[in-house]
Amino acid sequence: MSQQDAPKTPPPAASQKKPKGCLLKIIIWIALIAAVAFGVHLVMSGKGDAKKAGRGAGGPITITTATAKKGDIGVYIDSIGTVTPVYTASIFSQVTGVVVAVNFQEGQTVKKGDPLIDIDDRQYQATLLQAQGLLERDQNLMAQAQMDLERYRAAWARNAVSKQILDDQEKLVLQNEGTVKNDQGTVQFDQIQVDYCHIKAPIAGRVGLRLVDPGNLVTAGSSSNSGNPLVVITQIQPITTVFTIPEDNIDQVQAQLLKDSKLAVDVFDRSAQKKIATGEMVALDNQVDTTTGTVKIRSVFPNDDNALFPNQFVNTRLLVETLKDVTLIPSATIQQNGQISFVYVVQNDTVSVRNIKPGVTDNGLTQVEGINPGDVVADSSFDKLQDKSKITVASDKPPADGGHKPGGKGS
Fold this sequence. Notes:
Blueprint: H1 12-54, E1 61-63, E2 65-67, E3 69-85, E4 88-91, E5 97-102, E6 109-110, E7 115-119, H2 122-157, H3 163-196, E8 198-200, E9 205-207, E10 217-218, H4 222-226, E11 231-234, E12 239-246, H5 250-258, E13 264-268, E14 275-284, E15 294-301, E16 313-330, E17 335-337, E18 340-347, E19 350-362, E20 365-369, E21 376-378, E22 391-393
Parallel strand pairs: 1-22
Antiparallel strand pairs: 2-21, 3-12, 3-16, 4-11, 5-7, 5-10, 6-9, 7-8, 9-11, 12-15, 13-14, 13-16, 14-15, 16-20, 17-18, 18-19, 19-20
Helix pairs in contact: 2-3
């Protein structure tokens, strides 16, 4: 075989270059994957340790506690209402005349019978005087006829006059009596017209803004037709509030009314934060409003401090009944797991989960079933607690940790 036909062998360096490069890349990738896996392991391990430490694996959890107690709690119905005066008097003129005096200050509190407005009464006084004169004349005519009747009776007893003359005189006396009665009615009517000129307060209360001034002409009936009274008086003490309750609560309220119970009503301001007054329920309406499914209730308040103002919007709380000797815990200690309510009960530096049945809630306390008075429950650090967690009780409540979940069932 010639030198030209001999097989050609590649150089050694060229044949080894490719396998070494692939091996290096594989090693690098394996190293990178190992590094990432190690990093993920460290991160997950750190989270697990932190979680365990947070749940007490690293030590007891510091909490504050509350103790269940036996006590009384009210069952309330909350609603919105309007302050409504017991009486509101819109006073109109009953006669025509010129206003000569306004005897009140705007916003003044008046008593029943206090003078309010005077209208010029001179023409009515003159008419009254005429009626009184006619009455006096006819009374004297009647007296004369009665004297003649007595004479005729005496004469007829002696057969000095006929029976016809006596009968005519008796009827004449009756005619005069009728005339006198007519005159008396006229006098009374004219006296009333004079009295209408001097308007007095029909009720005790507070007057509104002045609507007429001296010199204004007022006419009988025209003010009432136009809807413009001379003055408006609103009774302030006592005063009432009208509010509504759902028809589902009617039986609950009726049961108390049948016992002649006095149901207390508390009134709060628009924000429902400040208590304004306390009164009692006085009436339940006789029908349900079909458009809202509610029934109206009226409650009365002494309002000695004038805290309630007519037509004021208020929030109301009707105390239907008071539950006696029930178990109470702070509402903030109750936790929720779906539809299940539970608390963490503290025993021997350990907490255990106990399901409860919450009931009425009022003023931060909830009536519950499932624990006993005297049981100690956790009141903080709920995000760290679980069943059988070790705990230590702090003297002060720790800062908010985001796990504080108020629970409980409203009234």
